[in-house]
Amino acid sequence: MGKSIYDKIFESHIVGMVDDETYQLYVDRHLIHEVTSPQAFQNIAASGRSVRKPESILAVADHNVPTDPNRLSSGISDPVSQRQVDALVENTRTWGIPYFPLDDPRQGIVHIVGPEQGMTHPGMLVVCGDSHTSTHGAFGALAFGIGTSEVEHVLATQTLLQKRAKNYHVSINGVLPIGVYGKDVVLSLIARIGTAGGTGHVIEYSGSAIEKMSMESRMTICNMTIEAGARAGLMQPDETTFEYLKGRPLSPGVEYWQAALEHWENFLPDSDAEYSKMADIDVNGLEPFVTWGTSPEDGISVLGKVPDPSHIEDPIRTRAIERSLEYMGLEAGQPVRGLPIDQVFVGSCTNGRIEDLRLAASVVRGRQVNSRTRAWVVPGSGLVKRQAEEEGLAKVFVDAGFEWREPGCSMCLGMNPDRLQTEERCVSTSNRNFEGRQGRGGRTHLASPATAAASAIAGYIEDPRELITGQAD
């Protein structure tokens, strides 16, 4: 029986077994941030242990930090957030762990900074105390989030205890229509299989549409694979992967590059690999997607209508829809296109890369943000910010009426000052639309950078094709 990418990475990292189902795996790369690491370091020190391999770790502060342009002078107003950042600074200094402070141009969101630095390679096992570690699967690496106790375990032993997951293959084929992007693809997948569709599995993506995608788009899809309930998402490394990695600070140097390519070939899937689940997606007729409810699975075409719970046979799903409609202030059968919005957020580890900013800028160039809508662009890292400024993208946003901010997780989650007020409605390029995710009582509609940008100009949820080509009906 052939092996999947997941099978090959998992098996190559086994260093021990606890029982018939639990394996001890070696960890190649460990990313940390200020929220899930303080207690882990505290326990390390209290037990008299040490950090096993500091050079395998990279640390940034991203979740709690402010993104306003004056943050270096104004500081962090929330005392708990400040203590967490201070603890990260002290712990990384104590243990000799590489850390990018707020005044370092390399600082940013952990899952944007890691790939930027060339930290993630095909065949690696990568972990972080953050669920969207699945982002790194776009490189053909097994990457997933871990809890604080597991962060401690990896710090001390460079290993992790894991049970084996099942294989789920998703083939995505066709040519993406104008106005449709990686974010729309993954939202449509989650809407199809649900937030529990991938539970117990690692989803492995392939197909002609994936092959044509940039690394940025691939990272977007793997980033949100966790929202389908999967442990991780994986893609086969190819020339696009290798070109992205070449020359980055933590990638193999010229003298090791050919050996690295030969090693990475060991992690291609076998043609006869077996999967417990399979799905095929044809993107040729796909339309821009947007969520209407309080779960990532609540996605529909931007030209669609909010579902009617009375037409749903499953009573549990019926109640969930009714609750979502009440929270979101929507009515059954209501079109999503045309919903007035208060805020647009372009950023996050899902869509805060340079490709995302280029896409949003292409939609807003020469236009103005609607007077009733606030619009923010938060680059995913200082390097993304600098590149966007050099390319003139920042000027496009500012001229259109967007706020141009400093790197950080920002409005992806309500753990920093960038929050929605109660009942404010936001079109967001982030990854989760749970109740209160962007602030208590805030209403979140997930969408691509193009849809978010078009909505900022319109002042309501808008089909980006209307601004790109005039194709919307």
TrEMBL record:
SUPFAM superfamilies reported in the protein's UniProt record: Aconitase iron-sulfur domain (SSF53732)
One matching Pfam family: Aconitase
Molecular function GO labels: 3-isopropylmalate dehydratase activity; 4 iron, 4 sulfur cluster binding; metal ion binding
Cofactor descriptive note: Binds 1 [4Fe-4S] cluster per subunit.
Biochemical pathway: Amino-acid biosynthesis; L-leucine biosynthesis; L-leucine from 3-methyl-2-oxobutanoate: step 2/4
Positions with a binding annotation for [4Fe-4S] cluster: C349, C409, C412
Cofactor: [4Fe-4S] cluster
Function field: Catalyzes the isomerization between 2-isopropylmalate and 3-isopropylmalate, via the formation of 2-isopropylmaleate.
Protein family membership: Belongs to the aconitase/IPM isomerase family. LeuC type 1 subfamily.
HAMAP family, sorted: LeuC_type1
Protein name: 3-isopropylmalate dehydratase large subunit
Lineage, top ranks: Bacteria, Pseudomonadati, Pseudomonadota, Alphaproteobacteria, Sneathiellales
